[in-house]
Amino acid sequence: MTSTTTINTLVDQLKANPLNWALLAVFLYVLRSYISAPANAAPEPRHPETIVFKDYTPIELQPYTGKQDNGMGRILMAVNGNVYDVSRGRNFYGPDGPYGNFGGRDASRGLAKGSFDLDMLTDVDKPIDKLEDLARDEWEALREWEAHFAGKYLLVGKLVENI
Amino acid sequence: MDLDTLSFILLGSIGAVAYLSLNNSKTPDVHPLILNGQADVSRIRNAGESAIYRCKYTPNGQPLFSCPDRSARTLYDIFQQGGLKNNAQANFLGTRANGGKGAYEWVAKRVNNFGSGLLNIAGLKTKSDEVVGIFAPNSAAAHHYSLVTVPLDQHDTVSTLTHVLNLTGMTVMVVSSRTLPAALAAASEASSRALRHVIVIGTDEDLRADDRRAAEIAGIELRSFEVVEKAGESAPVENVAPAGFLAIVPPNQKITASDRHLSYLSLAHVYERVTIGVLTYVGGSVAFYSGDVSKVLEDAQEAKPTIFTSVPKILHRVQDQIIKQYGDSFLYKKGYGNKQALLRQGRLVNDDMWDLLVFRDIRTKFFGGQVRVLVTSADLTNAKTTEFFRIVLGSQVIQGYGLVEASAAVTATLFNDYSSTGAVGAPLPCNEIKLIDLPELGYRAEDVPNPRGEILVRGHNVFKGYLGDEEATRKVIDADGWLRTGQVGEVLPNGTIRIVDRKENVASRLPQ
Fold first, then answer.
1. Which member of A57, B126, B335, B458 has the greatest number of CB atoms within 10 A?
2. pLDDT for A142-156, tens place per residue?
């Protein structure tokens, strides 16, 4: 058989047999992936975000309710003198959450008494709530809440008096 | 639907191309994402400081790595464990003189004998503050012993020796016959008359008459090593932690008992002691050089080390030599270019055509042909050297940054990280690092794009303090345990550190 006859035979076989179409497609794909360079697009490395640990006065703390930055801002909360970043719990402590009142404020009294009412919060211009009139079981509740926060959220600062 | 000729042809072609693809996978040695995050970064930082960076294996919140094994806490334990238990017959220390033999057992016996000889003759008490000085070139005999040792470099001047004698009040010193005159001179000059015994390596015949006389004048008892060795048993005390490095070696490149190291850097520097410690722990062998640094490459040819530690000065010299000898040949230039392209893609090869033609020859002639890891200290003057050696040797080149005050190593580059940006790697698992603002030099932790500042180190490899100098110690280690290194660094986004500048306040040097 001459070469032209061979080629003609092969072409006829290609036209006739559907299996050959599939095999041809697979062959072209494998060939293409062998020839072309691998897609090696690793993203550029970036420095991760870090938060500066510092002292917050009640007035400084107040803006961090989560409403800032178009509703994407950080949410900070003070519990017993420690300031925690609770942005992960936006569902609870964000502006629309059930405990949204606590965002940017000292939540100690509210957590101790188990209430989320506005009258649990002290005004930011007044001195920090000294929690002197809490009963023993309320103190225990506060300590439990504090442990919960310390384990779940990041400690980012301390609450200090307004000068 | 049947298989006709064309089907078979296509099937065969698919099989062939698939086989070729599998064999020629052009993927890098390690996934780029791993190289993107080489350090664990703390979430909070103090004002005026950067975040705290740690090794990925000991992230923030976990304890730092302190020892590879709970049973190996002192150098003595490391020796017992690594060498003695696993393969007592294997070669441990060798020199050209004794034909490269020196099994762990043999060394153990000599160590025991010498140690107890010291106790008996020199009246030293174990586990006390008394120190023994070792003032000799690296040699199998000057290796570590019990009690606290103070190594002195063979090139130290008499004034350095005098200072050390005064400061430590040492009563015993081990010397070699070459260093003996300097030792005796220092002893007579030192104001501390505590030095009582000088032990010379070798036998009694090696002690020359005028040395004996000089010793008598100084009121010192001169003894030969051999004599001291012929007595009882020892007791261990020392405390160095060399194994933070072992933890970051990937499992397929582990340092094992078949590794060998050529020891030529001064044992007075903790860098070399740490390397020998690492090899003792795994049960590898250590060959000691013949005493002349310029002949190191010849020693390497004979000893065939697998791990080669070096300093940038020596590597630059070797690099110049290699380029002078081979740099003009066409094959070399072509091969270098090819391998460099591969390296940029993240692939280190040492068995392709160019190695066969050009580089294998260089390897055998210059380093003994078996080197698989080249360890060097931070190369601040020529960032291309590490790339050069990766290409020519076809082996991993690890750059470490460290200082004497922190047991020689603080960060080390990762295996399989082939970048040559001059970064010296991520922190080791045994310590953590942060940068603090240096406003007087213009470096701040809040700089963009990368935080910069003075490097501070804290961890298990930081030293306890300068001997007898509380004030200097306080200046260098702060109340939280952070050691000020005096080097200014920059943290790159992938978690590695690059040394940028130097602040002159610390009495330490990189091993140069």
1. B335
2. 999 999 999 999 999
Residue A146: the pLDDT is 92
Q: Measure CB to CB from residue A52 to each of B41, B45, B495 and give the nearest one.
A: B45
CB contacts under 8 A, A 119-148 vs B, are none
Closest-CA distance, B386 to chain A, in angstroms, reads: 22
Task: Please say if the pLDDT value at position B143 is more than 50.
Answer: no
pLDDT (tens digit per residue) in A70-106: 878 889 999 999 999 998 888 888 888 888 888 888 8
Q: Please state the φ and ψ torsions of residue A106, each to the nearest 5 degrees.
A: -85, 115
Q: Is the ipTM of this complex over 0.95?
A: no
Our CA-based measurement puts residue B379 at a distance from the nearest CA of chain A, in whole angstroms, of: 23
DSSP B89-117: TSB-EE-TTTTT--BHHHHHHHHHHHHHH
- What's domain B105-234's architecture? 3-Layer(aba) Sandwich (3.40)
Nearest by CB to A13, from B4, B26, B44: name it: B4
Q: How far apart are CA B78 and CA B69, in angstroms?
A: 9
Nearest CA in chain B to A43: B33
Domain B53-68+246-258+306-506 matches domain B105-234 at the CATH topology level: yes
Same domain, A9 and A79: no
CB B461, CB B240: distance < 8 Å: no
Measured in angstroms, the CA of A134 and the nearest CA of chain B are apart by 32
Per-residue pLDDT of B90-102, as tens digits, reads: 555 655 555 555 5
